[in-house]
Specification:
Structural class: alpha/beta
Low-confidence stretches: none
Strand content: 5-15%
Bound molecules: 3-methyl-2-oxobutanoic acid, zinc ion
Largest sheet: 8 strands, parallel, barrel
Number of helices: 15
Radius of gyration: 25 Å
Mean pLDDT: 95
Distance between the termini: 71 Å
Order of helices and strands: EHHEHEHEHHEHEHEHEHHHHHH
Length: 387
């Protein structure tokens, strides 16, 4: 990749996202989501973990067969059997990728029972094996953030020497903060021979609510692939949310002078569909895609956006494919919002009738949490009947 301002979007909704307890998707749902991700412009789709189950293998194989533009990636642990199985599934793609990983931090080394030197040998052997199948190999140092810095440099150097083309630096337990996320990428770029030939990826979890900030900090330091999921779906507190990083890059070009290939107008529909098929509702105040993300109820805010939408909105609802109104009618709404809302519904009232409806509207809003269009129409009918 020659354009150093282009950030690749690697979506792992179908792998890390689906690993959230209760988020299992059917074969057809996975195919549908993969097609939508491909159409949206996601660069790499991590379609699953082929050795995990027959179902995962079939899903990754079918997604690979049906892929159009995106690279299709499968996950495998650091052993030859996993990698063989992964290749069998992704090989059908126009652009296949094998992703292999091993936990490199002291606690993860304890689990695999490998000492530092044995792990180096394992990394070299497995990445070489993957490269014999495929030109596009991603290697991840699971729990990289809690790995000793010198050892992290050694494992990354080994994976590059063995032929990895993307090196992923995951914050597996959502432990890091933006300054550290950036510092690690900077250090690897400075210290590891061959680091300038490969792409560094950032893969953050949201345990401290930092996933988006940490991913953006890593990009500022030189990472050029962000791993993320739709709605931030993922184990525990989830992964970096695709819609957040993509919109942050779009909205703050001044601080983040990068581009992605994402068609942002497809975000809202895909967010809703992933919520439906995963069974995970999107919280109302979720950034970018929450039900309230573009809604204004207070009179001051409503008056502001009616006069100049930029007073309280930093992005346009249409940018994420949202067409619904951004005014919520409630007890904090003012006369200007009521007039505008009624006009949208086809009622242009004279001042005295508007005053009358406004008084009734406020009384209703004190009793009722949400005021629907039908409530407003009923208020107008009452007002007309009383005059
Ligand atoms: O969080 C993590 O470390 C992972 C790896 C498998 C990349 O999901
Ligand atoms: Zn993860």
């Amino acid at each position: 990749m020659t354009d150093n301002t282009r950030v690749l979007i690697f979506d792992t909704t179908l792998r890390d996202g689906e690993q959230s307890p209760g988020a299992t998707m059917t074969h057809d749902e996975k195919l549908e989501i993969a097609q939508a991700l491909d159409e949206m412009g996601v660069d790499i789709i991590e379609a699953g973990f082929p050795i995990a189950s027959e179902g995962d293998f079939e899903a990754v194989s079918d997604i690979a067969r049906n892929s159009k533009n995106s690279v299709i990636c499968g996950l495998s642990r650091a052993n030859l059997k996993d990698i063989d199985r992964c290749w069998e599934a992704v090989k059908h793609a126009r652009r296949p990728r094998i992703h292999t990983f091993i936990g490199t931090s002291p606690s993860h080394r304890g689990i695999t029972n490998l000492d530092q030197d044995q792990m180096i040998e394992r990394i070299y052997q497995t990445v070489t094996h993957a490269r014999n199948y495929c030109e596009d190999v991603q290697w991840s140092a699971m729990d990289a953030i809690r790995t000793e810095r010198d050892y992290l440099c050694r494992v990354v150097e080994t994976a590059i020497k063995a032929g990895a083309t993307t090196i992923n630096i995951p914050d597996t337990v959502g432990y890091t903060l933006p300054q550290e996320s950036a510092e690690i990428i900077r250090m690897l770029l400075e210290r590891v021979p061959g680091a300038d030939r490969i792409i560094f990826a950032t893969h953050c979890h949201n345990d401290l609510g930092m996933a988006t900030a940490n991913a953006l900090a890593a990009v500022s330091a030189g990472a050029r692939q962000i791993e993320c999921t739709i709605n931030g779906l993922g184990e525990r507190a989830g992964n970096t949310a695709l819609e957040e990083v993509v919109m942050a890059i779009k909205v703050r070009r001044d601080l983040m002078p990068y581009t992605t290939g994402i068609d942002t107008t497809k975000i809202m529909n895909l967010s809703r569909r992933v919520s439906q098929v995963s069974g995970f509702p999107v919280q109302f105040n979720k950034a970018v895609v929450g039900k309230n993300a573009f809604l204004h109820e207070s009179g001051i805010h409503q008056d502001g956006v009616l006069k100049n939408v930029e007073t309280f909105e930093i992005m346009k609802p249409a940018d994420i494919g949202l067409t619904e109104t951004n005014i919520a009618m409630g007890k904090h709404s003012g006369r200007a919002a009521l007039r505008s809302k009624l006009s949208d519904l086809g009622f242009d009232l004279a001042d005295n009738q508007l005053n009358d409806v406004f008084v009734r509207f406020k009384a209703l809003a004190d009793r009722k949490k949400e005021i629907y269009d039908e409530d407003l129409v009923a208020l107008i009918s009452d007002s007309t009947a009383n005059t």
